[in-house]
Each structure stands twice: as structure tokens, then as C-alpha cells.
Specification:
Helix content is 1%, strand content 50%. By secondary structure, the chain is mainly beta. A hairpin with a 4-residue loop joins strand 23 and strand 24. InterPro entries: Kelch-typ_b-propeller.
Length: 347
């Protein structure tokens, strides 16, 4: 293959060897609040490094990489909270890819960038659920990339960071992590560069949105990054928040083990959640973020197979985690997380 099998994150030898690791965590999950319930499978093919977005009470999951057969995918599936089952919808019209990003407005979904096995991509598409059609829009205006992060806030979509090509002189580029950010105006189908991410360049960072404020954290740049920032889209301003490791002399962060990459986030009850991903090995730890205090609390460990490159979404204030990879194998299971229920083992 032109790059590597686990292309999105240039995975370490640990993962390439196909060995499954689980991060250390508290053995007594009864100490933590939150309950995981298995909810079936996504689609016909397991996958890692897929994308997802939600419109009203329906989630959409597609693209990705089928590790077992070394195949990139472009199919898409929708999950309705009302029906409780998955349905295949129109496939993404571009090339099959993994490591792309997605976001959604109240009525449309958007997918772009990624890696097709040879190229870092910048094409960009809009999905209309009312007629199950995709429309190609103007290409992402930054460098082609994969492992970026994306969110929708203040009426615009945003894509930034990731792994792309950096120009070193007029006729030479080198692959490297990125820190630039771009906004997308749906009404005009146009891109505009905004303030670059205040933290260091990175790939496979995490992001979520609470009360019209975007949060971007962690990721990888030759090490696990333990910083976190919030973004004010109205004023185009990044603000650094407390680190997500044992960084301060104060005791509040003594047990923080949140830094990771290729993890997932979702929101529920006005709080943000991080789970799965890579932190030395595949993690099952779940953490809850309270924006009013800028503090994290550990919740019940993810009960599925430890994994990286999963997707997550929220429907009716309930979080869902689906798909992902473990060693040389892709996964297609779906898990629901209610952060306010008492833990019940394997229910």
C-alpha cells in the first residue's frame, strides 16, 4: 500500500502488530455513574476511521476502512431513534476513503477530506436527507488532509488540524501535522481561513460543541497532547483551558488520564464526553466534561471491545459509540451510553 494499513494515524508498532491492549482503569466500575448498553451493528461491513453526523433524531455513518480486507469504503447508513434500526442510504459519490470529517446543520450533512490510499483529499459533499442525494460542493480550501477535526457552530462548519502536506519552498512539500482552521458558509458555498488553532499542530484531535462554543482537545504530534481550547466563532478567538493531564499542583487533576488520540466525543445533558482512542494502548476510559467549572470526572468504562477510530453521536440526549478498530480487525458494534443511569454490568 502507498502509505500504511492504519493510514489515518500512522499507527505505532503496537497496533501494526495486531496486539490488543487495554489501558489501566479502576477495576470497580460501580464507583462511576453511567451505563453502557449494546445496541446491535452498523451496516454490512465493519469499519474504522469512518465519519458520522446527525440531523434531528437520525444519525448517519459512512466511509471508513475495513482492516480485515484492507478495503476503503464509501457506503452510508442511517439510524433512526424512532425505528431503532439501520438503513442503507446513498453512497458518498467521491472516492472511497478513511480519515475524513463530517458535520451537519439542522437540515443537511457535510463530508470531506480524508485519504484514499494514495492522496490526501480535499473534496467536499452535501447530503440532503429529504431526497437521499449527495451534491458535490466547492473543495475544502485548505491543504488536502486526513485526521482533521470538524464541528458546526454559529451557522457555519469548521475544519482544521490534521495530517497534510506543508510547503517548504516554491516547489517542495513535506507531509506533516497541521494547525490551520477554515470555516464553511453553507449559503454561499465558500471557505474562509480563520484563526489557526492556538495549540501545536496535530492530527486525530477531538472536538465537541456545547452552548454554541466549540471545544478542541488532545490529539497527536510525536506525543500525546494534553491541552484543550475553546473557540468563540463570533469573535474568531481561541482560549486555552485547563490541561487534561496531571499538570497543575492543585489536586483536581491528579487522576486525569484523558489525553489520547483517535478517540470519540459526544454531548449529553449540557456536558461533553470522551471515550475510547489510543493512550499507549486502546482505551476504554470514559470522561465527562463540565464547562462551567472546566473540570473532568471519570465515568463508567466503555463496555465494548477497546478500540480506536470509532464514531460517536448523540440522539435524545443519549450518547452512542459505534465501529472502530482493534489491532488488525474492524468492528461494527454499537453501544448506547446514558451518563445519568447507574452502572449495570453487561446489560
Amino acid at each position: 500500500m502507498a502509505m500504511i494499513k492504519h493510514s489515518l494515524i500512522i499507527l505505532s508498532a503496537m497496533i501494526l502488530c495486531g496486539i490488543s491492549f487495554v489501558s489501566c482503569s479502576n477495576d470497580d466500575d460501580d464507583d462511576y455513574l453511567g451505563n453502557w448498553v449494546e445496541m446491535g451493528d452498523v451496516g454490512k461491513v465493519p469499519r474504522t476511521e469512518a465519519v458520522c453526523f446527525t440531523i434531528e433524531n437520525t444519525a448517519y455513518v459512512g466511509t471508513g476502512y475495513y482492516l480485515d480486507e484492507e478495503i476503503r469504503l464509501k457506503d452510508f447508513w442511517s439510524y433512526s431513534a424512532e425505528s431503532g434500526y439501520w438503513k442503507q442510504i446513498a453512497s458518498l459519490p467521491g472516492v472511497a476513503r478513511n480519515g475524513a470529517v463530517a458535520f451537519s446543520s439542522s437540515t443537511k450533512g457535510y463530508v470531506g477530506t480524508g485519504y484514499d490510499g494514495e492522496n490526501k483529499l480535499k473534496d467536499f459533499y452535501e447530503y440532503d436527507p429529504s431526497n437521499n442525494t449527495w451534491t458535490q460542493k466547492n473543495d475544502f480550501a485548505g491543504e488536502g488532509r486526513y485526521g482533521a477535526t470538524a464541528f458546526y457552530v454559529n451557522g457555519k462548519g469548521f475544519i482544521g488540524t490534521g495530517y497534510g502536506d506543508v510547503e517548504v519552498d516554491s516547489d517542495e512539500t513535506i507531509p506533516n501535522n497541521l494547525s490551520d482552521f477554515w470555516s464553511y458558509d453553507i449559503a454561499t458555498d465558500s471557505w474562509e481561513q480563520v484563526s489557526s488553532f492556538n495549540g501545536s499542530k496535530r492530527r486525530n484531535a477531538m472536538s465537541f460543541v456545547l452552548n454554541d462554543v466549540a471545544y478542541v482537545l488532545s490529539g497527536y504530534d510525536n506525543e500525546y497532547l494534553d491541552d484543550m481550547y475553546k473557540y468563540d466563532a463570533v469573535n474568531d478567538q481561541w482560549t486555552e483551558l485547563a490541561h487534561i493531564s496531571d499538570y497543575e499542583d492543585d489536586s483536581y487533576d491528579d487522576d486525569y488520564t484523558i489525553a489520547r488520540y483517535s478517540a470519540v466525543t459526544f454531548v449529553a445533558g449540557g456536558k461533553g464526553y470522551v471515550t475510547t482512542g489510543i493512550q499507549g494502548g486502546n482505551s476504554i476510559e470514559t470522561w465527562e466534561y463540565e464547562p462551567s467549572t472546566d473540570r473532568w470526572e471519570q465515568k463508567t468504562d466503555f463496555e465494548g471491545t477497546s478500540r480506536y477510530g470509532a464514531v460517536a453521536f448523540t440522539i435524545n440526549d443519549i450518547g452512542y459509540v459505534a465501529t472502530g478498530g482493534n489491532g488488525n480487525y474492524s468492528l461494527d458494534d454499537v453501544w448506547q451510553f446514558n451518563p445519568f443511569e447507574e452502572y449495570e454490568s453487561k446489560d
